[in-house]
Design brief:
It comes from Clytia hemisphaerica. It contains 35 helices and 33 strands. Helix 17 crosses helix 28, helix 21 packs antiparallel against helix 22 and helix 26 crosses helix 28. The strands form 8 sheets. The chain has a 7-stranded mixed β-sheet with strand order 17-27-28-29-25-30-33, with helices on both faces. Strands 7-8-6-5-9-10 form a 6-stranded mixed β-sheet, sandwiched between helices. Among the domains are: 104 residues, DNA repair protein MutS, domain I (MutS, DNA mismatch repair protein, domain I, 3-Layer(aba) Sandwich); 225 residues, MutS, DNA mismatch repair protein, Chain A, domain 3, CATH 1.10.1420; 213 residues, Rossmann fold (3-Layer(aba) Sandwich); 43 residues. By secondary structure, the chain is α/β, with parallel strands linked by helices. The N terminus is likely disordered. The longest helix has 60 residues.
């Protein structure tokens, strides 16, 4: 009878081990208090106790599943057998079904000599079985979802003899639930959680060793699998673990609870720990979901199969397992999809920060997706400069993981990092590590980037980063010096610091931090992920070389002119839908590419080579652009024809199936180990076939016999049940049905085990051969393919900017060495793109040159002043990346930097008020700007009193106009400042025009007779005009904001009073001035 394990008797088959634990039978509604519940039995029939068994694997209305083919094939031991699942693995656990079996009194008496023990199986549920025990030991029953709160002390105090004579008592005891948490379960959870010290989006420390395995009464007994998981936990670097068990991946302890919450799967108590599971084929799906949420995840795989285990020395031990991979958001590079950035603007950088001296900081950032390594080092004398440098690096790179030293950094750096992590929308992981003493980075590779680098300090930072990357087996990225570049090269790109990038909304808007509403969203029409990343770098680093800018502009112009030509259409189609070749080349160089991915990557490279080779002559003959001609010829040259040789070595059909055993067409040439393993398999198979033809027919008295393969079990000999007695007694029984029994003769069984071992050796040899093949390919082609992909990315960026240039109202700017910014009918490209259908942006002119290098702009609030000065800065950025401009004509001189002081922000974390932050930004601009810079000052001095603000604004403006002489855009609401500089030679006063509907005056309410002030009502024209605006019209904006009318009327009266006082004071001052002048005149006349 299923469910009972009897003593084995020689010559008899053993019965199946019980596979489910007991559950109390549900009581009738008529039973009071859930007392004893006896079933009625017919007369003259002995009462048979009924035991109700919980089956938590079988969904309602389903019969118990038969053993799977995988179970039969691998012959897993009882503590490793997996339950079948259709992909919805844990839903059946929420509604367990019950199955009744009857047990005789004799059987119950036999059970008195046994206690219920359980073992943690690999299928995600308990598999209890009976074991013999002494009289002092007590019954232990596992906790299911519905029994997780049963007090184990009640079960330990139960007597098995009572169970034999009065099963209803056991039912009653098992039905009792405790209101308090199970003490033993709490102890187990605490022990596991101490070993599971990972965190989401926070600092992760290596896990401590497990606590002492003691509990209140007795010792905790861990199953072999649980012990193995605890050991793996020590090696996991604080990661969640996917533990492979048969055809499922399981979570344990806190991992299971987190997985249940994040993946929406079931979690239940299983022996000592909470557990949850997913099917093997869903690993990549759930892995992606967890890393995208910011978790660090490890994958634990079985490193031996049932065939190797059966012939090894550890037949009775669990399968050996080890952590094969650890992933985070940035390091999960070998995904199923090859263009996994999904159009995101931000690449996945890991940034390591190190502080060598008090004011010297080192930064090394790695993008594992592309193997790009960015280095920077700077020293700062002030906290404000440090904050700006940090904001610049973080704004451009947008790191999603930070690697920090164990020791604390400077307080201002720690505060900045904490604010960056807390404000991040997508989440940022941070880890603190002790730097390793060794690194693959060399001083020569760093000196090549910048001779001024303090290489020893940077090497220390590289050690810190390499220690982190080694967890993910990505430290090889730092070996190639070709992957390194400097963050920003002086005298080669325009300076755009973090404050400017934020104020101008270059990469993200200031509303919700999204890409929409940023300059990048307007320019990004790239077809490829690697083109998208390069365009982002172009925008962050506008060119200073006039010749390079002209090359891009000429290339874009010719693309626009030939947009409908055959070669442009073909090239656009070829790039559309392209996979991430930078990422593909990286996973090949790191030897993580599967055969199918390798074929896909190299085939894509070969397609691009063929495409550009086909049209290289046509492009060279039809275009004048030096850049386009170079790209069309260099791309096929770098790729060459050598890629075909690598592809020709592979069997593409087997590669698409990821069958490494047969992926090579001629393994004997380069991989003799693979050929040797294949020959060994053929030899064994031929011996088995010879045995089938010659000896099996005689043994069975048949003319011919065929091997059978049933549920994955090979080399079976079927014998009809009525003929079983005629076969030899040493034949090994494998399985049976009502009609036939399946055996393996000793010879077949021995050679089948050899065959399994040979297949495993072939698998190992094939995997080693594949790794060797990838290594050889990387050595021969990595550098050339990398340069070719960089050229394709440039071509993709030019196509993207050509799409922008094709839009109506865009023009090609004239770039020269003259100091001028002259724009006619200019429009803000971002705001124009956000306007609703039917709305039109009001264009404005700009004229700045050597004679007039400053514009002083006044006007009403919300009149468009800030938008206007931002669009001028954006014109300059667009011009110097080689893009068309939203204007009818443009002429721009090359700028070395753009500096902005806009908005009002405080910094409470550093104890800085709004005005202090404002003054620090102004101080930075005063120190760094040159006569080739563009300086934007929006309402400087507004954070303090009027008199101090006017004085500071006036003094700063005078310094810029007389000393530094940059291009200056100065916005203010202080009329005295405009009056002071209205006759200055270097500046011109402008204002944003408007129409005033009503003049300020006094009216009488007809109903109440109360006098009310008229509040100005104006219409914004958003058009730049000469002269100074009379007022700021703040009350009009207050009304638009919904301020109460009573408050506005009171403010209007106060405003009229202030204006009257100021007018009287001005008249009085003028009278005094006139009197003094007249007195001086009379004195002079008297002297004469």
């Amino acid at each position: 009878m299923p469910g009972i394990k009897r003593k084995s008797t020689p010559g008899k088959d053993n019965q199946q081990t019980i596979s489910r634990f007991f559950k109390p039978k549900s009581t009738d509604a008529n039973n009071n208090g859930g007392g004893q519940n006896h079933e009625k039995t017919p007369k003259r029939q002995k009462k048979v106790p009924v035991i109700q068994i919980l089956d938590d694997d079988i969904a309602p209305s389903q019969s118990p599943a038969k053993p799977s083919s995988l179970q039969k094939q691998n012959k897993l031991p009882h503590d490793e057998i997996k339950k079948e699942n259709d992909g919805n693995v844990n839903q059946s656990l929420t509604q367990p079904t019950t199955h009744k079996i009857t047990v005789s009194e004799k059987c119950l008496q036999k059970l008195a000599r046994y206690s219920i023990d359980n073992t943690l199986s690999t299928n995600g549920s308990m598999t209890p079985y009976f074991t013999k025990t002494t009289s002092e030991e007590s019954i232990e029953t596992p906790s299911s979802m519905e029994q997780s709160n049963i007090s184990k002390s009640q079960l330990n105090n139960s007597n098995l003899q009572k169970f034999a004579h009065s099963p209803s008592i056991v039912h009653k005891e098992m039905a009792q639930t405790s209101t308090q948490s199970n003490f033993d379960e709490t102890v187990h959870r605490k022990i596991f959680d101490q070993n599971n010290n990972f965190s989401k989006l926070g600092t992760t420390e290596p896990p401590p060793p497990p606590s002492s395995n003691t509990k209140k009464k007795g010792k905790i007994v861990y199953t072999p699998l649980e012990k193995q998981v605890l050991e793996l936990r020590k090696q996991s670097h604080g990661a969640m673990l996917f533990v492979e068990c048969g055809y499922k991946y399981r979570f344990f302890g806190q991992d299971a609870e987190v997985a249940s919450k994040e993946l929406n799967i079931c979690c239940h108590m299983d022996h000592n720990f909470m557990t949850a599971s997913i099917p093997v084929h869903r690993l990549n799906v759930h892995l992606s979901r967890l890393v995208e949420k910011g978790y660090k995840v490890g994958v634990v795989n079985q490193t031996e199969t049932a065939a190797l285990k059966a012939t090894g020395d550890n037949k009775n031990a669990p399968f050996t397992r080890q952590i094969t991979n650890i992933y985070t958001k940035a390091t999960f590079i070998d995904r199923e999809e090859m263009n996994h950035d999904g159009g995101k603007a931000n690449p996945s950088y890991i940034l390591a920060i190190n502080q060598s001296k008090k004011s010297c900081f080192n930064f090394i950032a790695v993008n594992p997706t592309t193997s790009e390594v960015v280095c920077e080092q700077f020293s700062t004398k002030s906290i404000s400069d440090l904050s700006v440098a940090l904001e610049t690096i973080f704004s451009c790179l947008k790191p999603c993981e930070l690697v920090l030293p164990k020791s604390s950094l400077d307080e201002s750096v720690e505060t900045f990092i904490a604010r960056y992590v807390s404000n991040s929308i997508e989440g940022v992981r941070t880890e603190r590590l002790i730097e390793s003493p060794f690194t693959n980075v060399t001083k020569e590779s760093l000196k090549r980037l910048d001779p001024e680098f303090n290489t020893q300090s940077l090497l220390s930072c590289a050690c810190q980063l390499e220690s982190y990357l080694s967890q993910f087996k990505l430290d090889g990225i730092l070996k190639s010096s070709e992957n390194f570049r400097k963050f920003r090269t002086i005298n080669q790109s325009m300076v755009l610091d973090g404050i400017t990038l934020r104020n101008l909304e270059i990469f993200e808007n200031n509303t919700d931090g999204g890409v929409r509403g940023s300059l990048f969203s307007v320019l990004n029409h790239t077809y490829t992920p690697f083109g998208r990343r390069l365009l982002r770098r172009w925008i962050a680093n506008p060119l200073l070389s006039k010749d390079e800018i002209q090359d891009r502009l000429i290339g874009i112009t010719e693309m626009v002119e030939n947009w409908e030509s055959d070669y442009m259409k073909s090239l656009r189609r070829g790039l559309a839908g392209s996979i991430d070749l930078e990422n593909g080349l990286t996973i090949i160089s790191l030897k993580k590419a599967s055969p199918s991915k390798f074929i896909k990557i190299v085939s894509e490279l070969e397609k691009l080579r063929t495409l550009f080779f086909k049209y290289s002559e046509e492009i060279s003959s039809k275009t004048k652009s030096k850049l386009l001609r170079e790209l069309s010829t260099q791309i096929p040259q770098h790729l060459g024809t050598r890629l075909d040789a690598s592809l020709n070595k592979l069997n593409r059909t087997e590669a698409d199936r990821n069958n490494k055993n047969n992926v090579f067409k001629q393994p004997e040439l380069d991989y003799p180990e693979v050929l040797k393993a294949k020959n060994e398999i053929k030899s064994i198979e031929s011996k088995l076939e010879e045995y089938r033809r010659s000896r099996l027919p005689r043994a069975l008295n048949k003319l011919s016999v065929e091997y059978k393969c049933v549920s994955g079990l090979e080399y079976l000999v079927e014998v009809k049940n009525n003929e079983v007695k005629s076969i030899s007694s040493d034949w090994i029984k494998i399985s049976a049905t009502k009609q036939v029994t399946r055996f393996r003769p000793p010879f077949v069984d021995e050679h089948f085990k050899k065959l399994c071992r040979a297949r495993e050796e072939l698998s190992i040899s094939s995997n080693e051969a594949w790794i060797s093949f990838l290594d050889s390919f990387s050595y021969l082609h990595y550098e050339a393919c990398k340069r070719a992909i960089e050229k394709v990315a440039i071509f993709d960026c030019l196509i993207s900017l050509s799409i922008v240039a094709k839009q109506p109202g865009y023009c090609c700017p004239i770039i020269d060495d003259s100091d001028c910014i002259e724009i006619q009918d200019g429009r803000h490209p971002v705001i124009e793109g956000l306007l609703a259908s039917g709305q039109q942006y009001v264009a404005n002119d700009t004229k700045l040159n050597n004679e007039k290098k400053a514009m002083l702009i006044s006007g009403p609030n919300m009149g468009g002043k800030s938008s206007y000065i931002k669009q001028i800065a954006i014109y300059c950025i667009l011009a110097q990346i080689g893009s068309y401009i939203a204007a009818s004509s443009a002429r721009v001189g090359v700028l070395d930097g753009i500096y902005t002081r806009m908005g009002a922000n405080d910094n409470i974390a550093h104890g800085k008020s709004t005005f202090l932050v404002e003054m620090e930004e102004a101080s930075r601009i005063l120190r760094n700007s040159t006569n080739k810079s563009l300086v934007i000052l929006d309402e400087l001095g507004r954070g303090t009193s009027t008199f101090d603000g006017v004085a500071i604004a006036s003094a700063a403006l005078k310094y810029f106009l007389d000393e530094v002489q940059p291009f200056t855009l100065f916005v203010s609401h202080y009329p005295s400042v405009f009056k002071e500089f209205e006759n200055h030679d270097a500046c011109v006063n402008h204002h944003m025009s408007f129409i005033e509907a009503n003049d300020v005056g006094v009216v009488t309410d007809e109903e109440s007779g109360v006098k009310k002030e008229k509040v100005d009502s104006i219409v914004f024209l958003y058009k730049l005009a000469n002269g100074v605006a009379g007022k700021s019209y703040g009350l009009n904006v207050s009304r638009l904001a919904g301020i109460s009318e009573d408050i506005i009327q009171n403010a209007a009266r106060k405003s009229s009073q202030f204006q009257e006082k100021m007018s009287n004071l001005r008249s009085f001052k003028n009278a005094i001035k006139f009197a003094k002048t007249k007195e001086r005149y009379l004195l002079n006349s008297h002297e004469h």
